[in-house]
Amino acid sequence: MPQLNVQGVTYPIDAILFDKDGTLLNFGDLWIGWFDQLITTVNRRLATFSSPPPPPPLAFAELYRRVGIYPDSRLWDPTGPLTIGSLDDIVTIVALSLFEGGLAWNDATEITHDALQSLDASLDWSRCVTPVAGLLGFVARARHAGVQLAVVTSDDHRNALRHLSLLSLADHFSVVLGHDQVPRGKPFPDMALAACQQLGVTPERTLIIGDSNGDMAMGKAAGLRAGIGICAAPHLSGEHLTLAAHVIRDYDTLAFGTSPR
C-alpha cells in the first residue's frame, strides 16, 4: 500500500486532497492581477452609471486593505479574504464598498456581478495560471504510487476545472469540488468528507495539502489523517498554519514509498 514520507514521518494513505490557489497554482500570479482588473472593470462601469451624481471610483489601496493585499508590496495576507474566501465573499466586499460610496445595494451588487462576468470572459487565464514548484512531478509520482487525488477549493467548480486544464492536470484528479457544490465551505468539513466519499476512501487514510489554516481546519474537522501546509510564496513564513502537522516550501520535499500489506 502507498505511503507518503514527510519530514521523517510516514503516512500510509489512499488519497490526498489539495486546495487549489497557492497549493496547485501560484496565488500571486493569478489573483492579485485578477483583483486589479476586477476593480478597474467596476470603475469603468461606475463612469457610465446613469444616476446622478456620479459615484466616486473605488480606491485600490482601500480595497486592497479589505481583501488582504498589502498596498506597498502587492503581496497578500494568507489569512485574508482574497486568500481564503470564495468569489461570493469578494463580490460582497466590493459591493459593500460601492454601497458605502453612495450606491443603492441593488445597484452595487449588479455592477459588481456584471464586472465579474465581464472579467471572466476577457481575462487571459493562460498567462496567469502557473504551477507551484515541484507540483507536476509530485502529481505524476502520486499517480504512479496508486494514490488517488482530489481538489477541494474555495473557488467555483467551473474555475477549478479551467485552471486544472491550463496546468494540464485535469485528468489527474478523480474528484474536483468547488465552494459552490457543498452546503458549507472551508473551514467546515463538507468538501473533504464529500471528496473522500466520492473517491471511495476513508478520512483516516487521507491527507490534505493546503496553504491556509482554513484547509487545515477543514481536514481536522473531517477527521483526515494529517494536514500538510505549503508556503510556496517567499514572503510567507508558515506561522499562520497553526493546525498543520507539517509545513513545506515545495513538493520536492515529499517522497512516496510502499509498505507491505
**Largest sheet, if any?**
6 strands, parallel
CATH uppermost class of the largest domain = Alpha Beta
User: What name does CATH use for the topology of the largest domain?
Assistant: Rossmann fold
Which percent range fits the helix content?
Answer: 40-55%
Helix/strand order: EEEHHEEHHHHEHEHEHEEE
The low-confidence parts are none
Overall number of domains = 2
Report the span from N to C terminus: 6 Å
Strand element count: 11
Q: Beta fraction of the residues?
A: 15-25%
The assigned structural class equals: alpha/beta
| CATH architecture title of the largest domain | 3-Layer(aba) Sandwich
Inertia-based shape:
elongated
Radius of gyration: 19 Å
Mean pLDDT: 94
What does this structure look like?
With 261 residues, this protein is α/β, with parallel strands linked by helices. It folds into two domains: 2-26 and 130-258, 3-Layer(aba) Sandwich (Rossmann fold), CATH 3.40.50; 30-126, no CATH class. Helices cover 41% and strands 16% of the residues. The chain has nine helices and eleven strands. The protein has helices at 27-47, 60-67, 81-84, 87-100, 105-122, 135-145, 157-166, 190-199, 213-222, and strands at residues 2-6, 9-12, 15-18, 69-70, 75-76, 148-152, 175-177, 206-210, 226-230, 246-248, 254-258. Strands 7-6-3-8-9-10 form a six-stranded parallel β-sheet, with helices on both faces. The chain has a three-stranded antiparallel β-sheet with strand order 2-1-11, covered by helices on one side. A hairpin with a 4-residue loop joins strand 4 and strand 5 (75-76).
